[in-house]
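Quick one, tokens below:
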């Protein structure tokens, strides 16, 4: 049948479309700024007909009213990345958090580990062949749509038509809901002097011809302003935001040196302003793929000189990095951090950078700590970590011993915390840690023979 006829047959109102969702169904919701808000609002309108509908979502940028306490009878949120709207719901038991690398999320759906009944997505209008683009959210949205029993798509002319492996044919959609909604936008981040200091340090680690991945937030964004004198940078990333557009327009980003997808920027989702969405629309320089491709470390590593830039919340003396929990609180998710840390470290000439302000809570807490907080979980292993950057400099941890790492990290901690951190270092490593102190002398010598202790003392003298 002609796709135009199919289109007309499948066209329904939002409420009609979502009334096909049944109590107890597991429903995947299109990701981040590509969330189909018209469909979610329609679900709220008829919420009385639902009991225990499970909504699976990763980064949520909309109001996420399904997380609200008054909707707990109707909806249950399965979170793959906590955000401002889902954090409280997770703590109060109305939502459940499932840890996963971003690259692995499609498998949860396609291999029926989390079998899906329904997928909701937002797409561009069909082209002359009947294909709609997933636009700014291809990521897990496309694999979810390909796995679900029922597919409901919100079709809006404001969704950019992105290219690559980003399309769905009208025949694969069960119900189409036309809307005039615009994809959610993300304002430009406010870049502080601290962000700028960090950006300057990171720019010093980036060379002409490098291929970049840039994570979420002001810190990764702040480096873009420092790259205007670089040449032939490439992009293979999970997402990018507005700053990249300036560097393409000024000729800094050409992707000419990329080994894989030469001349193209590769991504899986976008969050930014209308300017970004206009830039990616029908742009042959931008290739979108599902996240199990973009974030596969073996794919990432095919580009030489891959540099990943992400942020974190805490790092301990040994180099264990916490990026998604604050103590027992699930703050965000690991997202694609480990995918890119590993991909970059496997790439010839590759480097991974984790950058953050040296303090949190308006300067009251050091993010460089002797040991991670109780309840916190390690996002990036100390065996994977490479560069840590704060506004006070760069610590290159790869190939460094634990004591050298502590020394380098204390060197880039906020000056107000350095002496306390040195004292902790001394008490843990030089006077014997609490476990050591409880051991009888004979056993302690076995664990920490004289020469090792002398070596340690030498390192410590460098620290102080
Ligand atoms: N202890 C207590 N509170 C802390 C803290 C710590 N160690 N570290 C940070 N915080 C607080 C901050 O003070 C801030 O609170 P405020 O908003 O009240 O000031 C809040 O936590 C957020 O910290 P901030 O560093 O500003 O967060 P961010 O928005 O820059 O995001 C991450 C940083 C690490 C949370 C975010 O990048 C992330 O989730 N990363 C993991 C996923 C990832 O890297 N994906 C990669 C590809 S996109």
């Amino acid at each position: 049948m002609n796709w135009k006829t199919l289109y007309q047959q499948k066209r329904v109102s939002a409420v009609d479309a979502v009334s096909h969702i049944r109590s107890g169904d597991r429903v995947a919701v299109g990701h981040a700024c590509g969330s189909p808000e018209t469909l979610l609002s329609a679900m709220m309108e008829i919420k009385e007909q639902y009991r225990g509908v499970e909504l699976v979502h990763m980064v949520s940028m909309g109001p996420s009213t399904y997380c609200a306490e008054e909707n707990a009878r109707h909806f249950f949120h399965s979170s793959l990345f906590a955000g401002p709207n889902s954090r409280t719901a997770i703590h109060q038991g109305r939502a459940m958090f499932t840890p996963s690398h971003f690259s692995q999320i499609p498998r949860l759906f396609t291999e029926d580990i989390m079998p899906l009944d329904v997928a909701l997505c937002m797409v561009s209008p069909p082209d002359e062949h009947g294909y709609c683009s997933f636009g700014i959210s291809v990521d897990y949205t496309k694999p979810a749509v390909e796995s679900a029993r029922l597919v409901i798509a919100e079709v809006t002319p404001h969704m950019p038509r992105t290219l690559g492996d980003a399309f769905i044919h009208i025949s694969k959609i069960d119900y189409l809901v036309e809307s005039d909604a615009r994809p959610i936008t993300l304002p430009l981040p406010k870049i502080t002097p601290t962000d700028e200091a960090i950006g300057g340090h990171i720019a010093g680690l980036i060379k002409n011809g490098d291929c970049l991945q840039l994570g979420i937030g002001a810190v990764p964004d702040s480096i873009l302003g420092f790259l205007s004198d670089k040449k032939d940078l490439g992009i293979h990333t999970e997402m990018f935001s507005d700053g990249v557009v300036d560097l393409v327009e000024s000729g800094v980003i050409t992707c000419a040196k990329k080994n894989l997808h030469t001349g193209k920027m590769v991504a899986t989702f976008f969050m930014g302003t209308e300017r970004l969405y206009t830039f990616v629309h029908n742009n042959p320089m931008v290739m979108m793929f599902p996240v199990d491709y973009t974030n596969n470390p073996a794919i990432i590593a095919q580009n030489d000189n891959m540099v990943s830039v992400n942020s974190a919340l805490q790092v301990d003396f040994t180099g264990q990095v916490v990026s998604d929990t604050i103590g027992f609180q699930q703050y965000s998710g690991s997202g694609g951090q480990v995918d890119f840390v590993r991909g970059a470290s496997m790439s010839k000439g590759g480097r991974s950078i984790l950058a953050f302000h040296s303090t949190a809570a308006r300067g009251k807490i050091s993010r460089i700590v002797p040991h991670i907080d109780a309840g916190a979980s390690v996002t990036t292993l100390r065996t994977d970590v490479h560069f840590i950057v704060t506004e006070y400099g760069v610590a290159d941890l790869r190939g460094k011993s634990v004591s050298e790492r502590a020394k380098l990290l204390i060197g880039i901690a906020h000056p107000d915390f350095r002496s306390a951190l040195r004292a902790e270092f001394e008490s843990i490593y030089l006077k014997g840690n609490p476990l050591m102190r409880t051991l009888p002398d004979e056993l302690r010598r076995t664990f920490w023979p004289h020469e090792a202790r002398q070596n340690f003392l030498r390192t410590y003298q460098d620290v102080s």
